[in-house]
Queue: 2 jobs
Job 1
Amino acid sequence: MSTLVDLDRVSLTYGEGRRDSTPALAETSLRISEGEFVAVVGPSGCGKSSLLKLVSGLHRASSGNVIVAEREVTEPIKIVGMAFQNANLLPWRSTLRNVMLPVEIVEPHRSRFRRERQAYVERARSLLHTVGLAGFEERLPWQLSGGMQQRTSLCRALIHEPALLLLDEPFAALDAFTREELWSVLQLLWMEKRFTVILVTHDLREALYLADTIYVMSARPGRILVRHEVGLDRPRTLASTYEPAFVDALATLRGHISDARGNGAHS
Amino acid sequence: MSVYPDASDKPMVSGPRPRLPGSFRLAWPAFLKNAVPDILLPAAFAVAVLVLWELSVRLFDVPAFVLPGPLQFLSVLANRFDAIAGMAMQTVRSTIIGFAAGVTVGLTIGGLIGSSRSLYDMINPTLIGFNAIPSVALIPLFVVWFGVGPHVAVLTSAMVCFFPVTVIVATAIAASSPELDDVLRSLGARKIDVLLKVSIPRAMPQFFGSIKIAITGAFIGTIVAETVAANSGIGYVMVVATNNMDVPLAFAGLIVLSAMGVFFYIASRIIETRLTGWAYRRE
């Protein structure tokens, strides 16, 4: 499979040249294939989110090369969809119209939107249906639970069919049951459409459930310590998380994280 | 294909969408039940105050040029209704024209300042300095520049509206949410997209907050200007009446002012709930 994202010895320092400059990433290299589901785990503040900002072009690297879709990233790239820990929905828009926001803005959908509005509405409805939100299209965000808002946010990130989905701890604010449900929703969407995903998370079970490849990062400034390939079959289910292979992988990853935090004690 | 048709996280509100303001419950028993606390009690209180007032005035033999009874000033209002109504219309006109002009300019300039960080940082302190001047203090200057007349009232109410709207709108538009900005930037959103689709709708509740301040202020500004520098309007009526010791006429003027104030308040409330209903959670 061809490479979609290629980071070559990338470093990022916030406030470069100032006395209070903070190094966020140091000499990070990784290569992500098209259609691959990647999870990035690491102690908090290790620069996981900075990694996403570099890939999306929202930040420029201090040194090294960021190449996405065979082009050097120098400005925000438009082939990405993003979702965060907060759903960030627009409170005055219905669920459906929140999902439609990207196609009103990003080209080439923007110019087509007026003529083919109905087609886009249909696409948004079918996405909402897939994540279990059929019948909630006309609700306002405050009428939705946290999990439903996050599902909406996922749909918004996918409506313009981005090649690359960037997820920054999207399920961290949800209760355990809702979170596990959304793992399954996300896996299903991914298996159906096969976009490339970079998922930043601090939940190791989440990483193992969803990803093909897991990168463990060190404490700030972040470097990649371990690349772990997850060999588990798909579709994975909650039952898979109790299988010996899953549990063993979890223990190994937990060990890496403890090392990354700089204390040898495996808790 | 739906994964979780019966998703376990239920919506906080189920059933029909919440009732919008302006739709009335017509079911007879509910109407009857609500009529007593909602309408009859407040009305009864208002009538009781007037009756008590009338009785006190008669009982203590208070002269009309000090404090007229309600019957007296209401009859003045009825007898001179045409003249008073004409003056009231002038006041309403001045208030609304000044209000519309002040809000339009304030919204435009506030929007411009708010959508540029550097412009905001540069201009806002000056704006706050100007805002600290009570606009009615400018009336004598308006008279020097433009002479006496209804335009002074219009200018004053416009000035009163302009500053709060500008400052509040600029601050509201300048507020940002970093993650949403990231989403929009990665979509290649232009500045105008962000302004039209996010910043302006998000600023609407604050804008309407400023509208309520503005309409009250415009009204006060108009009346003050009319008492100082006009030859028409309710403010002018008040001055003429008190100069002639015609206190019942002055009270008739006050009643009209009260009615107009309530009218302006209700009008702005209705527009507000229509346009920014999303900002208010309802049962």
Job 2
Amino acid sequence: MSENQELIFEKAYEQLGEIVKKLEEGELPLDESMALFEEGMRLERLCEQRLDQAELKISELIRREGGAVDIEPFEAEE
Amino acid sequence: MNIYRVSEVNSHIRFILEGDPTLSDLWLQGEVSNFTRATSGHLYFTLKDEKAQISCVMWRSLAARQEYLPQSGQAIVAHGHISVYEVQGRYQFYVDDIQPAGVGLLHLEYERRKKELEAEGLFAEELKRPLPPFPKRIGIVTSRVAAALRDVLHVLNRRYPLVEVILAPTMVQGNEAPPQIVQAIRALNEHADVDLIIVTRGGGSLEDLWAFNDVDVARAIAASSVPVVSGVGHETDFTIADFVADVRAPTPSAAAEICVPDMRELQEGVKWQRDRLVQEVRSIIADRRVVLREDSLMLQRYSPQTKVTHYRQRVDELWQTATLHMEHRLAMNRERLKGLCLRLDSLSPASTLERGYAIVQRSDDGDVVRSIRQIRTGDRIDVRVHDGKFRADVDREPERISYV
């Protein structure tokens, strides 16, 4: 599960594409094909989850006196 | 008091003039006269109004990037600085840009800066960097209260909420704006680990957008280590920042759209990949099944099972043959036994006795009497007939009988 959380959408999406390509090229042993398939389905679920759960995170650069720079959550002004 | 040399005074005057902020960055308007182009390529002319005139020079390198070249009698506006030609003790206007008269100051300045930075190579196509296809962090340089910020955030949230936004708030208008924008671009580069930066503000007049025509802002954009997307004003507004930026977007919303992929397309993409995956695996399995079926047929054909069946039959046959032989021999033996029994029967004395013969034995020693020579008067004998025996005494001498 922690591995899932570390794997960002971009990587998962890229890996999914690679797996599909590898399967389409064929000539793999069945066991390997099935393992790839399962990995592909896992990545597919992961991509879906990432997109479904995504929520735009907004922070703000704050310049402190003395020149230090902090990053804090952004609160919109109405 | 001192006594100075002429060259010292000229040099001093030059030093004073060049240190003057007004004279060192000056727009000057007037009518052109005595316009000449020297064989060296430098331009010499006089600018004058009703009351006065000033000598002007434009060096060949600067003249070369002039699209517009004036003629004597034309009204122009020229940019440059005042300095002294010490050899002759004359002050001159050293021109670096000439525009026809009638153009507003900001526009003049815009054109001049554009020309200057373009000549420096800041707009060069080969400096443009590609945008990352899946940015993780986007820096935004704009005002906290700008409508542009809301637009950008809205688009990012709709298209690609996976991205993280770091806002570097600045003023986007007024004299404070340019240094703040420069700072913000630097701070995002140094502290925020962003993949790209959007510099944006909504539409406005040339004055409103002026901060984005600032040379320092332009240089900060060029110096950014990550790509910069500009989205300043409306479609028709062009700023210096737009020319320096790696990608120019016509509006703030468009800038946001250019920077991120569309989530709905990605979802489609994921589904499509999934379908291909499933289809591919199905066809792989189907293929294997066909191969398996063929192999299985071959296997059956060459299976040891047929041999087993064959041998089982052979064993059966052998067994039958063996049984047959055994029975045959048994029957033969049985027949022989029967024959023997019959012969045995025929050899038994019983049937002979039945026919009236008797067996005579001497009572004293049990010897079977076969001859009269074994008998004398007074001997006792046992006589056996077919159904019993009796004892008798011999009371007379035996007599010989010849059967021949």
